[in-house]
Design goal:
Length: about 600
């Protein structure tokens, strides 16, 4: 059977998952009357809520008797680890670009990986139905990008399609057609069949699945020969050792699911059941003459964060898993499939250092654990520094901001305060396109400030560039916080009296404990306040004066915003039902002693 393996790559929100929906519908994977909903491939709850793809997934469709394996990849650089490994399964890539925004930082990041692997690109310019779109200019910008990334002559000669995945049409020109068949025909014509090489069996494990019945399932592309059911094989481990095993069951992808088969020939993607203790990147090889393929290289993490047990006065009230053993086991389980993650244990048995690609990467892990019933305390994200040529170096990123012209001055001002340097300033219609180089530290807490300053109009994206010399101190949060003096139930009376002091993170009747951060101060410096004081009643009180309490609603912060908000001496308590900000030292006297000690040392 004819096979084509294709990965779909693009920047966040350029329409990858919508395009996959259209491919699945066009090739009649579902019955005509079947209810499928939107964004079929984003099956995880978190993906649906945020509208982003986090985990790469496979589907397979048949068109004109050719089997097309489609791999949907995340567009966010924090999940680049997912993309780097699944590109190994593809022979061609569909590069999807928004007809207004053009190639963005993530597009560049993923395209670079694809061109290095000599994959055949097809450029798809999507959303040409949008107002202000500029498909011809975007096509030139994509060509320029290919040229900058040292594409070969053949890769530079890429075919281009225009259309709209939402409206369900694509064509080689801007004329609207009936459906997306020109795109499928282009895949059959331009993406080569997998090269079939003779020799002993080789299959690299590039992805993982888990089933409660079958255990861990290895997914990959058969690079050489044929893999069969019940076949004895050798697993070539990453550390150079060999382990003998046997294939129990084999599955290939069909539609959104899997189909059991007896053998899979080279060039096709398959799922293998029955192999124990494998890691991603290892090779399934011949039993007698095992030859390993090169292990997949993944870019290193750039940020770390401390995870520890929840040690606040409210521990164990909402979560099922609260001990350090539970947290350790869960983090170790995550390492199996999340390649870009690293976990190290510290001298304190209750604390773990977790390394990731960025704040979003780490916050998705925390959010997933929280939904599974874990309670934990997480510290402020820190960037990872390195010693290069005797100098202290830190990670730098390329930051791209698209913002209405009237706000561009404010954006430049705030980024330069955080040690960013501007390299590009272009005008795109009514929008200003700005590019900066900025230390990764400067990005922490930048998004919320930027959105406030630009009335929510700024569009930000960033990608890791390189390690460069340390830039010195970067200013953190300007304002201090209000801290609860004692535990109890917050009263409307107290909050009303303190409203001119700051903006609150809690509502009346919320339970608080001493040392919890309950509001942002309007000035620098922290303030300890009594939030549980009730109104003293006298027999002279007039009825109705209590109605005069007017309380501003509390500020709701997402997990990422909390992670960007906290300072060095603060942490976040995360439980299945609530997220609370608190000081690491809950006792006021302890905090004062610690500050004195720091001053004495300085």
């Amino acid at each position: 059977m004819n096979i084509r393996n294709i990965a779909i790559i693009a920047h966040v929100d350029h329409g990858k998952t919508t395009l996959v929906d259209k491919i699945l519908h066009t090739t009649h994977v579902f019955r005509d009357n079947q209810e499928t909903g939107e964004l079929i491939m984003d099956s995880n709850d978190l993906e649906r809520e945020r509208g982003i793809t986090i985990f790469s997934k496979n589907a397979s469709v048949t068109y004109k008797d050719v089997k097309i394996n489609v791999i949907d990849t995340p567009g966010h650089a924090d999940f680049g680890g997912e993309v780097e490994r699944v590109l190994k399964m593809a022979d061609g890539v569909l590069l999807l670009v928004d007809a207004f925004e053009g190639p963005m930082p993530q597009t560049r990041f993923v395209l670079q990986k694809a061109l290095h692997l000599n994959l055949h690109p097809i450029v798809v310019i999507n959303k040409v139905d949008k107002p202000n779109c500029r498909p011809e200019e975007v096509h030139d910008a994509v060509f320029e990008l290919f040229y900058q990334l040292d594409a070969t002559e053949e890769q530079l000669n890429f075919p281009t399609l225009y259309g709209s995945s939402k409206q369900g049409w694509f064509n080689t020109s801007l004329t609207q057609t009936e459906d997306i068949t020109p795109l499928l025909d282009m895949i059959l014509e331009k993406v080569p069949e997998p090269v079939i090489t003779e020799g002993n069996l080789q299959m690299q494990i590039t992805s993982l699945d888990y089933s409660t019945f079958l255990g861990r399932i290895a997914i990959g592309k058969v690079a050489r020969n044929t893999i069969r059911e019940n076949q004895p094989i050798t697993l070539c481990k990453a550390d150079g050792t060999f382990e003998r095993s046997r294939v129990k069951e084999l599955y290939v992808f069909e539609g959104m699911g899997k189909k059991k088969v007896t053998e899979v020939k080279s060039g096709d993607l398959c799922a293998v059941v029955g192999i124990e203790g494998f890691q991603i990147g290892e090779t399934i090889a011949d039993i007698d003459n095992p030859e390993a393929l090169a292990v997949i290289s993944i870019d290193e993490p750039t940020m770390n964060m401390q995870f520890s047990i929840n040690n606040s006065p409210f521990y164990g009230k909402e979560g099922k898993f609260v001990t350090s053993r539970h947290i350790r086991d869960r983090l170790m389980k995550e390492l199996e499939k999340n390649l870009a993650l690293r976990v190290t244990e510290t001298e304190d048995a209750d604390k773990f250092l977790v390394y990731g690609r960025g704040i979003l990467h780490l916050s998705v892990l925390v959010e997933t654990m929280r939904r599974e019933g874990y309670e934990l305390t997480i510290g402020q994200p820190q960037v990872i520094t390195k010693e290069l040529n005797g100098k202290k170096c830190e990670p730098y990123e390329v930051l791209v901001v698209d913002v209405p012209s009237e706000y561009s001055g404010k954006v430049i001002d705030i980024v330069t305060q955080r040690k960013g340097e501007m390299h590009v300033m272009d005008t795109k219609g009514e929008m200003q396109h700005l590019e900066f180089e900025i230390p990764s530290r400067g990005l922490i807490g930048l998004r919320s400030q930027m959105l406030t300053m630009t009335a929510g109009e700024a569009v930000m994206a960033h990608r890791f560039k390189d390690y460069e010399p340390w830039k010195g101190q970067i200013p953190g949060r300007n304002n201090g916080v209000l801290i609860a003096k004692q535990g109890g139930t917050a009263t409307a009376y107290s909050i009303d009296k303190l409203q001119d002091r700051g903006s609150f993170f809690i509502d009346p009747v919320d339970e608080v404990y001493a040392g919890q951060i309950i509001a942002e101060n309007i000035k620098p410096g922290d303030l300890v306040v009594n939030i549980v004081e009730t109104k003293k009643l006298t027999n002279m009180r007039a009825s109705g004066t209590d109605d005069s309490v007017r309380i501003t609603p509390k500020i709701l912060m997402t997990l990422e915003e909390c992670m960007e908000y906290i300072q060095q001496d603060e942490c976040i308590e995360v439980t299945p039902k609530s997220i609370r900000l608190r000081k690491i030292m809950l006792d006021e006297e302890d905090r004062k002693k610690y500050q004195k000690m720091l001053k004495a040392e300085a």
